[in-house]
């Protein structure tokens, strides 16, 4: 198993990066603060507050149920139904194994699911590996034993994929993977549109964001509720995956609510943020766990208030891929120099699209333009993943309304070759109204805590070491960098650069807890919202001794 994977992942000493005395601070963006010295193992005030109101805390989101099957520690392990060697795949790299692997995956899907195994060896693939059926898992013999060598880019295999926002940008800079988990119907609509140069939208509801039907309207409810009263329960059943759909009103009160509300969001100019408003309605996929007369119980607490003026409803959605996974292998692209910024050819790693309750485990991607992608994907788990080789544009990207995902035990290695001057590095990216996602226990030898604007909100990054040398992306039409309830908890910044990690001066109703002292080098960001941000800063100047050490795991333990 490679360096940084699994139980062998290296972490700094539990005594912290700086050691010595710790400082507690509670700070708002308006400058008011209180400070007190504390001993080793100090518990921030925020943790006690959160435990008292876990579903409705103003700064810290409830993320204990993030990930596949609500974050289960033991991922499903379906029985083996196919071996790619039986389909003609050779482990010596001498011929294209992609047709054999894809036939085996399709056969497993036709049988209702199961594991397709790839024995140890090196396999050349000249095409995309597609997992398009529910409950199908592609399983290698371990990331150090099974390697897929990809010879072509997505541009070569599908064609150029321009941007729906115009210009010469390549959408392969933030979409698609050489291992692509996506339902068959969605795959067909996407690739047909790309080949016709129609540049499709990528959200849960189809290319034109209108491929849905109302199942029922709902009564108002509060963030954190799991019970939701509905007008007509006749089309709802236990186990159904539905969309909660919230539309904005003319005064943009939904967007203001996502930003925490108050004077700052109310004074913000929303109307000219055309890319941001293209992400609305907000669409949150969730399973129904019970139906009792006119009340449904949801798998997860509501992410936002549900108000009558937003036309709340439960709707259908494009067919999602569920119960699928990829495990225990390395995907290595042909090593070519990184493309100029936003002109990626699509030597991309593993991408989940319109996926729910899916996962990747023990996966390494090498020499990729973009590493691991979540595109309109929710309730997925990326565990023991690693991006390595010549360097990536987006090592991890989370976009187009992706919610409730868990990335844990992850690693981004330092580049093996110097980066050309016209490339750009991001890091663990989140954008496009994506919410309640978690990045936990990470080692980042390069990159940053990237936001590509589009006002992601209520996301958590915790127990991570980072050489903070990346930059954020996103243009001004995408709106704010952050919405409310962004939390960074126990973060070790090895180069003392503050940008996008210490966010008490940037993110409204946010929490920055337990990071070492930092300073800016070359990227100075200003808050999108005026006035008091109601942000919290605690245990600034220390790491690791903060208790709990890992916010996500502590929430699970509650």
Main beta sheet: strand number and arrangement?
A: 15 strands, parallel
How many domains comprise the coordinates?
A: 3
Helix count equals 8
The tally of beta strands, per DSSP, is 30
Radius of gyration: 22 Å
Mean pLDDT: 91
**Overall form:** globular
User: Fraction of residues in helices?
Assistant: 10-25%
Poorly predicted ranges: 1-39
Beta content: 25-35%
Structural class, by secondary structure, is mainly beta
| Cα end-to-end separation | 32 Å
Structural notes for this entry:
With 558 residues, the protein is mostly beta strands. It has three domains: 1-16 and 76-211 and 327-367, no CATH class; 217-315, no CATH class; 425-558, no CATH class. Helix content is 11%, strand content 28%. The protein is built from eight helices and 30 strands. The chain has helices spanning 45-52, 98-110, 154-157, 184-195, 253-258, 263-267, 274-277, 551-557, and strands at residues 22-27, 33-38, 80-83, 92-96, 114-117, 121-125, 129-131, 136-139, 146-150, 179-181, 214-217, 227-229, 241-246, 282-292, 295-298, 313-315, 321-322, 325-333, 348-353, 355-356, 359-366, 370-375, 381-388, 394-399, 406-412, 438-444, 460-466, 487-493, 511-515, 536-538. It has a 15-stranded parallel sheet that branches. It has a six-stranded antiparallel sheet with strand order 11-16-13-14-15-12, with no helix packed on it. A five-stranded parallel sheet has the order 7-10-19-22-24. The longest helix has 13 residues, at 98-110. The protein is globular, with a radius of gyration of 22 Å. Mean pLDDT is 91; it is low at 1-39.
């Amino acid at each position: 198993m490679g360096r940084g994977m699994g139980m062998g992942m290296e972490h700094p000493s539990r005594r912290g990066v700086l050691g010595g005395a710790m400082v507690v601070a509670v700070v708002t963006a308006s400058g008011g603060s209180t400070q007190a010295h504390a001993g080793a193992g100090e518990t921030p005030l925020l943790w006690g507050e959160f435990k008292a109101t876990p579903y409705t805390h103003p700064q810290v989101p409830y993320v204990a149920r993030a990930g596949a099957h609500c974050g289960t520690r033991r991922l499903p392990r379906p029985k083996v139904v196919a071996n790619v060697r039986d389909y003609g795949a050779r482990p010596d790299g001498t011929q294209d194994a992609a047709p054999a692997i894809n036939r085996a995956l399709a056969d497993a899907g036709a049988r209702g699911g199961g594991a397709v195994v790839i024995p140890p060896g090196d396999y050349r693939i000249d095409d995309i590996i597609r997992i398009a059926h529910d409950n199908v898992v592609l399983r290698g013999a371990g990331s150090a034993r099974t390697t897929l060598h990809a010879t072509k880019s997505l541009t070569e295999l599908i064609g150029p994929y321009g941007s729906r926002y115009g210009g010469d940008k390549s959408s392969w800079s933030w979409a698609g993977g050489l291992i692509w988990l996506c339902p068959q119907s969605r795959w067909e609509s996407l690739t047909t549109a790309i080949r016709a140069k129609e540049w499709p939208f990528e959200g849960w509801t189809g290319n034109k964001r209108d491929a849905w039907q109302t199942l029922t309207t709902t009564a108002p409810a509060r963030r954190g509720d799991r019970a939701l009263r509905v007008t007509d329960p006749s089309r709802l059943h236990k186990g159904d995956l539905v969309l909660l759909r919230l539309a904005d009103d003319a005064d943009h009160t939904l967007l203001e609510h996502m930003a925490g509300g108050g004077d700052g969001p109310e004074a913000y100019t929303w109307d000219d943020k055309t890319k941001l408003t293209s992400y609305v309605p907000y669409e949150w996929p969730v399973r129904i766990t019970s139906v009792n007369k006119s009340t449904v119980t949801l798998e997860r607490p509501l992410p936002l208030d549900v108000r009558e003026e937003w036309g709340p409803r439960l709707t259908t959605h494009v067919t999602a891929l569920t119960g699928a996974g990829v495990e225990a292998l390395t995907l290595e692209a042909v090593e070519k120099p990184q493309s100029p910024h936003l002109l990626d050819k699509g030597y991309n790693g593993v991408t989940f699209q319109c996926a729910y309750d899916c996962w990747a485990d023990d996966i390494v991607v090498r020499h990729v333009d973009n590493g691991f992608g979540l595109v309109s994907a929710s309730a997925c788990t990326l565990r023991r993943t690693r991006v390595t080789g010549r360097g990536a544009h987006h090592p991890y990207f989370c976009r187009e309304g992706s919610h409730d995902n868990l990335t844990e035990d992850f690693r981004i290695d330092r580049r093996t070759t110097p980066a050309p001057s016209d490339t750009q590095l991001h890091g663990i990216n989140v954008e496009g109204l994506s919410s309640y996602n978690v990045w936990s226990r990470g080692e980042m030898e390069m990159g940053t805590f990237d936001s590509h604007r589009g006002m992601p909100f209520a996301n958590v990054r915790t127990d991570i070491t980072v050489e903070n040398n990346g930059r954020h992306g996103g243009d001004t039409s995408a709106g704010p960098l952050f919405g409310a309830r962004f939390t960074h908890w126990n973060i070790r910044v090895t180069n003392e650069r503050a940008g996008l990690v210490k966010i008490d001066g940037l993110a409204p109703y946010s929490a920055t807890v337990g990071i070492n002292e930092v300073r800016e080098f070359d990227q100075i960001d200003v808050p999108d919202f005026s006035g008091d941000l109601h942000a919290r800063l605690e245990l600034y100047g220390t790491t690791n001794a903060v208790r709990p050490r890992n916010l996500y795991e502590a929430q699970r333990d509650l």
